Amino acid sequence: MVSLKQFIQACLLLLLCLPNISYSQRTILTGRDNGFGSLYTHDAKISLIDGDHFIVVWKENSSSDSDLLGRIGQIDAANDTITYGPQKTLISDPCRYPEIISLSSSKAVLFYESDDTNDIGYSHVVNFTTSNDSITSIESAVSFSSGDILPTDDGGNIYAEPISSSSFLVSYSNAESNNQGEIKVGTVSGNSISYGSAAVFDNSEVRYQAISLLTSSKFAVTWGDNDANSNEPGYTRIGNISGTSITYETTTSFYTASGSDAVSSVSTTALNDSTYVIVYADAANSNYAKARVAHHTNSALSFGDVAIINDNSSCYDLSSSHLENGEFIIAFYSSNGSTDTTSVVTAHAAGDYIHVGDVSNYFEGNKATNNQIITFNSNTVAYLDILNYQSYTRGSVSLGTLIAASVWTGTGQWHDASKWQNGVPGDHSSVIIQSGTVTVGDDALALSLTIKSGATVDVSATKYLNVSGALDNQGTASALKLNSTSSGTAFLINNTPGVSADLYQYITGAAANSPSKQWHYFSKPISETIDVPTVFTGTYVIQHSESDDSWSYLSSGNQLSTGKGYGVWELDATNTIQFLGTVNTGDITVNTDYTNAEHGWNFIGNPYPCPINWDEGITRTNVNNATYIFDKSSGNYASYVNGTGTNGGTKAIASMQGFFVRANATDGSVKFTNTTKYNVATGFKSAIVESPQIQLKAKNDMGSDELVVRFNDSTTEQFDAEFDAFKLFSSGNSPKIYTLAQNEKLSINSLPTFADSIQIPMEYIAPAKGKYHLKLKSKSNLNDTQLLLIKSDNTTIEIEDNEYSFETTEENTKIDFTLKLIKRNVSSVIHRISTIQAYAENGVLKLSKLPNIKHKIDIYNSIGQLVHTQFNDQSESQIQINHKGVFIVVVSNDSKALYQEKVVIQ
């Protein structure tokens, strides 16, 4: 068996051979080891000595006069266990807020605040040996603060960081000077400690401060500010070290919130000599754990996007530690009001973006105190310290799959392997377009994508680019181009805010004064304000008014709003609309208007540069569930609601598509979110059929129209906002068909299931003179149901087998029909054999006096679905039915019904 250490060494060799390592989710393997202390352990701190050893200090209980203890721990990587050297009492006097840092393989520095009359901060050299894991001595105390240190309950702490084997930094909040933040350089010579002057990094009240060394002469300090007049309570700055002196660069806010004390815990971890991660608890937002990357360039700080580490519960005592290649691990204690949990999570910083893994819970029901993460053995084993009334928890982090970043140079197709360094990328790849132009001629996936300045990504029409993580366009908007032709439009799926792109939407052309000219309906996909003439020249743009159901023309000075729908008139020649700017992403709420029940129609639009799923990730408030999109091919509106559509309507709404919804009350809205984005290319596809339904289609030479009647016991005979769709009328000479429900005209009519028969009124509008047709397009889950079309003169048409045609010599002719559905029952059976008997007994259907010739037995449920078929040539038959309900038994011979009866299974 390969030991943990051998596995780590093999992975390190692999790392040396792989440039541009990208992130792949690590697995956190939790464990529990023998404690280093007894029960009631608290105020513990751990410091790494080398790849196998650490030093830990702690107090035995919460009493301020308890001893401060310490011992050396050693990890056995092969067996994944820990052993400890002897326990040693370090401080017998009352003390608080211990901190420990290891400077070498034999020397550490211990810090604490004395709980005597002076409450001074003290430090000691601690000597130890790893040969027998023993602490050999603790040397004389040397003070590093002139007075009290801000209490831990108020956000105070002592934080130390090694610089070299003989120097270190120590930071604290000086309670004698307005709790200002101070840092000193300490120097160790033999067993003596000396300090340089205190360097104040913030002269107002500092809380929850942390430091991290970037280089031997540069560090980052991060803290929360308790200035009640401040709206920027999260600060960070760079400190420069020269000997024992410290100078600071400009203080920069990494967090803004109203009020004071909005950062309730903070940790800082260096990733390299110019980049560090700030992890903090956002007290202004339920103490959720968040993180962001800080970049230090030319004496200035810039920050990446805020990443959510945990937004399910309040988080405290955050700690973080660098693993490798931008990966880091975070520990925190969280509480949702009923359960306390100690958790860890891995994350990866790439550019300005942080990819966060899944949170792993170590323990539930226990509160961790003084969480501290440190990493061992090439950053593969992490240790988390104390739980109340427990001792110690350990865990390991597996390396996971390491994937080299795919780097593009040259010009060609995305899937051309010869242009990529480290292979054609996939959905777990970090992608860098270093130079040249890459054409996405087939659908493409990436974990992250960086487009360097001067490089270009050109996505072909009908194809998509799906980047699940960070997308960084370092060039102009034109460096990321989404094309559009008569075949369709390219689209982008990505949630990174602030990405600029060059987007196009194809518009069909028609000759001047051509009767075939039409309106095209769209919604803008970028966040920038658009004045109509800057995008649309030589054509007309219109918007819809809910109050009077009218359209009006837009002109110069009229600006397009995000999430609203608009119409553009066809140009004389084929052309494309260009949108150049920042791609819409994130939550977008569109407010709807409502005048009264006679109105309520709002023309809104898909705000994203990709299709959306109307059934997921969208919140509708006082708005019906149906959508209505004009379908040019039929000349009518495609409606869709709850899994069913007409005229090609589906849950998929194309990118930049304008469409109608109907508000049913005031204060309505439609909220779009990133989770509604579709990751498949979408035109108009057939709806998914689940409920029993029929679909009728009307047509003439000018177009077509459809209606759907379906059956679902969650519905009523009245209009149901979640299941029904109104008939939205279009202009033109294509036919119109719809059903009537309580005088409402419906294109999709959902009704309760019926027992024997049902009659549904419907109307057919023939707008122009000419010939018209009506036929059954589809019938689903109604196998044993007869469909009849009854005209006002009682003429009956078997619509299932025949197409009904008529011709009118008048315009706007309306024909009334009744659509009748009949379960095939006794009255519809011509060749009935009265001697056959059918009855149920103990869940078994029993048939007797059957014909002694081969016959077929079909059993249907109450909504007409066939649930059983068998052939028989005996005079009797017994069939096990596994469900209760009403069933219809049909016996037939040579496709001719001989017998039909209802049987109740109880």
Class computed from helices, strands and strand pairing: mainly beta
Distance between the termini: 61 Å
Residue windows where pLDDT falls under 50 for at least 5 positions: 1-31, 363-370, 376-403, 681-689, 825-831
* Backbone shape: elongated
Rg, alpha carbons: 37 Å
> Number of DSSP strands?
86
Into which percent range does the helicity of residues fall? under 10%
Q: What count of helical segments does DSSP give?
A: 2
Mean pLDDT: 82
Main sheet properties:
11 strands, mixed
**Per DSSP, what share of the residues sits in E-state strands of 2 or more residues?**
over 45%
What does this 3D model show about the protein?
By secondary structure, the chain is mainly beta. Helix content is 2%, strand content 52%. The strands form 21 sheets. Strands 69, 70, 71, 72, 73, 74, 75, 76, 77, 78 and 79 form an eleven-stranded mixed sheet that branches. Strands 38-41-44-47-51-58 form a six-stranded mixed sheet, with no helix packed on it. The chain is elongated, with a radius of gyration of 37 Å. The model is unreliable at 1-31, 363-370, 376-403, 681-689 and 825-831 (pLDDT under 50).
